Amino acid sequence: MRNYFSSLSRRSFISTVAASIAGVGCSGWMPGLAHALQATGLRKKHCVLLWMTGGPTQTDTFDMKPDHANGGEFNPIETSAPGLFISEHLPMLAQHGQHLAVMRGMSTGEGDHGRGTFLMRTGRQPEGPLRFPTLGSMISKEIGDDSSTLPAFVSIASNPDFNPDAYDSGFMGPQYASLNVREQGFSDEGYVLLGVDDLEPTVGTSPSRSNGRLELLDTIQSQLVTRHPSAGAVLSHHTALNRAIRLMNSEEGKVFDLSEEPAEVRLAYGNSRFGQACLLARRLIERGVGFVEVNLGEFGRWDTHNDNFTQVQQLSTELDAGWATLMTELEDRGLLEDTTILWMGEFGRTPQI
User: Fold this and answer.
1) Count H helices, E strands: the chain?
2) What is the value of pTM for the model shown?
3) In this structure, what are the phi and psi dihedrals at residue 295, rounded to the nearest 5 degrees?
4) Which DSSP state fits 156?
């Protein structure tokens, strides 16, 4: 990626990130990233994590095995990068091949979903009492803007059931935890609605009464934090409350209103939770959010033990529309050059069908 280091390309940056996560954690490259940001702070940097819950099958997506006994039913197709072939069910993404750096040699020893999730999201094996932070907390600390009304780390439609600790800010504290965006139903046009819980004031309550309640609550919580500075739950709630109030009282909260987007744009991303989440990711990046996580695989849908090829084709269709349109729009807006997109899950599949 240009501007992180004078000699660091986008592909080598992605390789460094992925290798650090899978092997020895993020301690090695994070100081270098912070130093480079200070030296080249003219352009804001962003990172998008596309997290595939359940363990995506690499042999049916980015590491095809044509004419092999374990090659599967899908055919590989050419991409815009010479020599790079991916699944036929990712045709739009294939047009962005020149921007992709596919790592086909990564492996870990973890076969449990919970342990694999923790390893890939923190760079550490889940052992010992120390609570390690998730990737979004680490990176957002380095590239986030503390003065911004919007948080530096936003997680959209996350599914922490396999291992909640893998989604936590750990020893970095609640100020680096994610703002969680959840599905809020469907619009009249049938689009998935995404939003932050309780962002709007209570209906029927006057602004003066609402402000009075918030001031009283803030006073009580501030006293609790002062008296019990080591109480993590109290501090976490107080931090989340202040962040929510700041959003409620600003225009920045409108970023979550996807109805502002033209119908053709929403349709291009796909009317799935993942597609609309990718659209929201673009809006957040436009407004300076440093790290955005988008999840595909609610209820572990990538865990395709049954009817694998039908399920992976459906998942790939959602992935293709959302990811490819996100890259197209970021490139059109001049933001792709300063945005690293990571695609990964807790592990892949064994080579045998």
Assistant:
1) 10, 8
2) 0.83
3) -110, 135
4) E
